# Entry
Amino acid sequence: MIPLDYYLILSALLFTFGVIGVVIRRNVIIVFMSIELMLNSVNLTLVGYSAYLGDPTGQMLVFFVIAVAAAEAAVGLGIVIALFRLRRTVNVDEINILKW
# Structure
């Protein structure tokens, strides 16, 4: 059996990579992928603790997180397509629709 520490270390690394991707990258699609990576690292933590404690509650919560992530990806992709049609770019710095 794999120790819980390995799951938590891997989850922390994935979350860190996701945060770095959100902060450093300027492409909207890469930012969304980084957010998905952070959500998956939280899912890994939930499943790790759920298996460690022998309680299926964490695994059930993962299904809700996956459903929210799928909805976020669908809505986000629609927004990206609409912004690309309007501005002809997916660069975060060049999209300033909400500025006066």
In short: The chain has three helices and no strands. The chain has one domain: 4-94. The mean pLDDT is 92. Residues 57-87 form the longest helix (31 residues).
